[in-house]
Amino acid sequence: MDCIFCNIIKGKIPARKIMDTEKSLAFLDAFPLTKGHTLVIPKNHYSKIQEMSKDDSVDLFESVRVLTNKIERLFSPSLIAIHNGKESGQEVPHVHVHIIPRIIDDGAGAVHIMFRKRPHFTNDELDQIAEKLSDKN
C-alpha cells in the first residue's frame, strides 16, 4: 500500500513534525484550513478508529489532548475532527485526527451545517437506536 501518511512516518515525504511519540506522530496539515491546523496519526496503519489497538488509541488521543491544549493557548479554541472511513469523507485511508483552530467568523459553522439532507426521526425511532447502541446489547 502506498499511503502518504505511512510515507511521512518513514521519512520518505517531508512534513512539519511537531510531536513524535512511540506510537503517534503530529504534523502541520500540508493544506491548512487555519493557522495551526494539525494532524495527529498513529504510526501503525489503520483505516478506521475501531481497527486500532488499545495502546495505539491511548497514545493517539493523549497526543491530541496535549496538542489541543497547546494549540488553543497559541491560537484559538479548536475543532477536533475525525473522518472514519471513505464514506464519512476521509481522504487519506489512514486514521488521522484534525485539530483545527477556529474563530467565530471563519465561515465554517457547526458540524450540523455539513448535513444538508438531515433525516428526521420519531421519538420511537430514537429510542430504538439508543437501545441498539446501549451497553445492554
Kindly list the characteristics that best describe this protein.
HIT family, subunit A; 5 strands; 137 residues; 5-stranded antiparallel sheet; alpha+beta
Can you describe this structure?
This protein is of the alpha+beta class. The chain has one domain (4-110): HIT family, subunit A (2-Layer Sandwich), CATH 3.30.428.10. 28% of the residues lie in helices and 17% in strands. It has a 5-stranded antiparallel beta sheet, with helices on one face.
Give the topology, please:
Elements: H1 4-9, E1 17-20, E2 24-28, E3 38-42, H2 54-74, E4 78-81, E5 97-101, H3 123-133
Antiparallel strand pairs: 1-2, 2-3, 3-5, 4-5
CATH superfamily: HIT-like
For the record, the CATH architecture stands as: 2-Layer Sandwich
Helix content: 25-40%
Strand content: 15-25%
Count of domain modules: 1
Note the overall shape: globular
Strand line-up across the major sheet? 1-2-3-5-4
What's the rounded overall pLDDT mean?
Answer: 94
Q: What is the makeup of the main sheet?
A: 5 strands, antiparallel
